[in-house]
């Protein structure tokens, strides 16, 4: 009898663990969706091809656009940001503002941040001029991807 109880307990523990992991995954997906509502977050080949030369030209070290890897591309209004990785830099979020129809590099954020720092990160992006929805989405992306 105790062997049956042990087996039932073990299976119940597995089911509870799987349920908890599923709930956390769904909560994380929901947070991403709601945090980035109103922000264009599609990462298509065409968008990567558009941003790769912008990123490469904004770098101090010479790199080729093909060396730019993207973790995220977000846009809202005249502002956009690319979470990038290159062979010559740490990962970072590069901000661009569209002026007279051309995207211009404004600033880069690099480093590591905790989810508790999201308000400060969003405030930093807003101070650059980024819209509130893009600023909040940026803060969520850089704290979830670390």
Q: Tell me the strand order in the biggest sheet.
A: 1-2-3-4
- Which geometry do the CA atoms define? globular
Question: Low-confidence runs (pLDDT<50, min 5 residues)?
Answer: 7-31
Main sheet characteristics: 4 strands, antiparallel
Overall mean confidence score, pLDDT: 83
Mind sketching the topology for me?
Elements: H1 2-35, H2 45-58, E1 69-76, E2 79-86, E3 89-99, E4 102-110, H3 118-128, H4 132-144
Antiparallel strand pairs: 1-2, 2-3, 3-4
Structure characterization notes:
With 146 residues, this protein is α+β, with helices and mostly antiparallel strands. The protein has four helices and four strands; from the N terminus they run H-H-E-E-E-E-H-H. A four-stranded antiparallel β-sheet has the order 1-2-3-4, with helices on both faces. The chain is globular and about 35 Å long. The relative contact order is 0.13.
Keywords:
146 residues; alpha+beta; four-stranded antiparallel sheet; 4 helices; 4 strands; globular
Short description:
The protein has 146 residues and is α+β, with helices and mostly antiparallel strands. It is built from four helices and four strands. The protein is globular and about 35 Å long.
């Amino acid at each position: 009898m105790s062997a049956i109880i042990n087996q039932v307990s073990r299976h119940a523990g597995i089911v509870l663990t799987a349920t908890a992991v599923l709930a956390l995954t769904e909560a994380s997906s929901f947070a991403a969706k709601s945090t980035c509502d109103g922000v264009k977050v599609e990462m298509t080949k065409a968008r990567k091809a558009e941003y790769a030369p912008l990123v490469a030209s904004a770098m101090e070290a010479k790199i080729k656009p093909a060396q730019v890897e993207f973790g995220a591309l977000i846009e809202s209004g005249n502002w956009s940001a690319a979470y990038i990785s290159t062979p010559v830099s740490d990962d970072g979020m590069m901000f661009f503002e569209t002026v007279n129809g051309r995207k211009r590099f404004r600033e880069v954020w690099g480093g590591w941040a905790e989810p508790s720092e999201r308000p400060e990160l969003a405030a930093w992006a807003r101070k650059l001029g980024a819209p509130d929805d893009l600023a909040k989405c940026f803060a969520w992306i850089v704290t979830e991807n670390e």
